[in-house]
């Protein structure tokens, strides 16, 4: 498989975004975060997204003008951002920068962000903060989409609602990025497009049966994605999904009650500085202790030792930075489409 | 089943705690939170716990002297509490009060609490804050206990690590209290004592098989509790468990690396004021909107409509306040034992 250089990918995306009206800082941040997604191996949430972002920029459904961001500082540690559908990676990065400043002075900073455009791969934002021994948290929901049913119900009400958190550690930082549902909307669509079955039954059909067939999601009556915990413990995934829903949309003041349309996100961003609680050194000591205990556990399958959240991604990232990123065919195709329409046409690895 | 009056239970516990050296405020808060657990229907985490708390007070493993609490205010919104094993309900309530003051001024307040004694039922703390339109969060782990194995592993490393959050709503507030594992240590012990099978297979045997027999947890080689998500999606429950571990023990500076013994807890408490983000009214509107959408979903089983987190508990609470609390036999027996050893012996419903 052809490998693609991360710097070149960033430069290509930067040009594409600026040609479509994005300010330099918006283009740079969005390009960096998308490539970071692929570096961590999350190819559904990496540069593949650029094509859709560019279409939304062209159609006026996404905004590239950094000056549109409205920041309402309600206290030194609490702010509300109105993103006016600026590209999400720019908004989330600005929110993290804002929280980081607050956290290093006060121990915590928190931003509630409404009307963001799509925010890409949550794990992609964590590493710089974790390396500064800070704890970043990002929660998000998309109030324009419903794919998960409440536990015990059949009707789609909310989204997978992921939560990401970075845990600093000397030996092995933890990059956590998990949804509160069994699988994501992306997995359902991708598996269906490939004509495959899901790895595990994660769909509840419109008749209330559990299924591993993504077609059941799109059938009539329509199916839904099961919450984390499935039929046995799904009340927990449902509760956690509602928590993310409340801390994102409800807290921002803009959510499902406002019937938004199009690609968007409500986001909560927080940064915590352990130095203002029990201290950075003992935080790192404890992370290292737990990481060693987990990695030292006898594996259930001797072929598959315990892995920590983010461990595979960070190992891939080191490889991909040195040797290039092996983009899957669907990603290459999306990049081809994005480039074809630009001044770069004929001058990149994508044509 | 005999029903017990909530006020009388509180008064009984208050006397028992003060007779064993607890300051009046420690005794009052602990009594109130324990009874609150039973009012919400969580009888394993209600007044049943008093007997164990009293034993630890007598043995010097728990502290009842409120003056031992050390508060280190590291910023107006960030504090570290060293609980010196004061009764947990008192410490958590103090932490919530501290966070509430910070949140109403700054939008957020956060306390990291180390060396707490056991903190009882997390849901029991939420209602007063939720009724004031604030969002309380409580996360906890017990660094002296290991019962859950890392995903893919067989060795017990950490605890169920629950997370509680209260979501204000005009029609139906949400009281969320869920662990990041399939079941709790308490459920394993209680089911074993009754000679029953678990409701769902939630144990991983020491040989790596999934089981619904609680005996497999205690067998040799010993079993463990499966993370939320079980074998299919347990990497998510594992990641969430590590998040709670980090935000409690690591953040407090005191955890598993310090090899603590006895009943204890590391706790993170946070309060968020929606008024300092998108506004209280729109928060309540959004909660009401989501609650209606969930409750309006067609149920999977027509006999069992969708219920929101906390809905059953709050409905029980109204009944129990009016008509008394139907304490199960094991709780009555624990109360009998606690009373027998006190000045109240012969003067209560428990003998």
Automatic annotation (TrEMBL), chains A, B:
Belongs to the LDH2/MDH2 oxidoreductase family. It comes from the Bacteria. It comes from Salinicola corii. Coiled coil: none annotated. Residues 295-320 are annotated as: Disordered. This is Ldh family oxidoreductase. One of its GO terms (molecular function) is oxidoreductase activity. Keywords: Oxidoreductase.
